Amino acid sequence: MGILSWILFGLIAGVLAKIMMPGKDPGGFIITILIGIAGATVGGFISTSLGYGEVSGFDIRSFGIAIGGALLLLFVYRKVRG
Length: 82
Fold this sequence. Notes:
Blueprint: H1 3-20, H2 29-49, H3 60-81
Helix pairs in contact: 1-2, 1-3, 2-3
């Protein structure tokens, strides 16, 4: 996958994480993309470490993992920047 695909995937995951966890965040559009991309990375690392298999490509399972990671990072981001 190209970098633009991962940025788009991270953007969607970050936006969905913000919708699932509403509230005022100290950040804008770029922070949403970064949280989504980092969330996809963290979620993939955690799921691989726990033995759920590797994340390869775009599918429902990897999308759920990315959203879960983005939710986790959004929660941590709010606590740190709050």
